Amino acid sequence: MSDLKLFTGSSNPELAHKIAHTLEIQVGNADVTRYSDGEVALSLNESVRACEVFIVQSTSYPGNDHLMELVLMIDACRRASAASVTAVIPYFGYSRQDRQTRPRVPISAKVVANMLESVGVDRVITVDIHAQQIQGFFEVPVDLLGSTRLLVEHLRGLDLADPVLVSPDAGGVEFASSFALGLGGTMALIDRRRDSPAKAKAMRLIGDVAGRDCVLVDDMIDTASTLTEAADLLITSGARSVRAAVTHPVLSGSGVEKLNRSKISELITTNTIPLPVEKQIDKITVVSVADLLAKAIQYIHTGKSLAELIANS
């Protein structure tokens, strides 16, 4: 069995160190800096020859910089004769651009897949990717882990009264269904549609939430507009409380301010994307995916099937 090495770029070193702690290893010695013009400068400061290398790097903001770091680190490992290189991408950026929604636009998620494969990645591990069909954009194995079990465990400790798991749009029904199954609640759906280009998008609640504790479920929260508007609708429809359970806390622009002013009493999320100090508000609770990712790495390193781990996550 090849030696296991774990490296990290600059996107989420804290998560990488937590993973390393669980695996009882040290994070590999690498320098990731910038030239004066902003170009990434990278070097590995230890041998990876014949080693099984795992690189932990979310492609969150600034996504282009973090993606370039990942690509260059994969290339450095390949040129240093690593036995294999696995990209551990807790948050896979560009995953919302998985198809052509109108003529003459790129399929950006496919471009990212091509970039990673072009520099020799052997495998990809990610968590709650926005569009699961992206798995088919790769010619190498892609392991899609989920955060549902971790988020549900936190929700179980809240003593929610007759909980309702709410999908904020039709596309998230399957994701919300997994929460309803794990938590034992029922489901509701918010139907969003625009009657005409000139009219504002209308929202309609499908399901009964009166007097019940609601949990909005989504794979990510970005500007927070979708979830905060959904929370308003749930409260006006008689919900007793509204929380949100979301895997990736993108929280770009004024997202944190919107969340703080909203009727959402708590956002339960993960550390796939690190929250800077200015985004660490009282409403946000973070659960760690470190043990989940560490277990996936250990399974791959020892040749154990990930099927059960994926099914139970």
- Helix and strand pattern: EHEEEHEHEEHEHEEEHEHEEHH
Compute the average pLDDT: 94
What is the number of strand segments?
14
Looking at the structure, the CATH topology of the largest domain is Rossmann fold
The biggest beta sheet is recorded as: 7 strands, mixed
Number of domains: 2
Distance between the termini: 27 Å
Using the 3D structure, state the CATH architecture of the largest domain: 3-Layer(aba) Sandwich
In terms of DSSP E residues, the strand content is 25-35%
CATH class of the largest domain reads Alpha Beta
Q: Give the overall shape.
A: globular
Helix content: 25-40%
Low-pLDDT regions: none
Q: What is the alpha-carbon Rg in Å?
A: 20 Å
Number of helices: 9
Structural class: alpha/beta
Strand neighbour order, sheet with most strands: 10-9-8-11-12-13-14
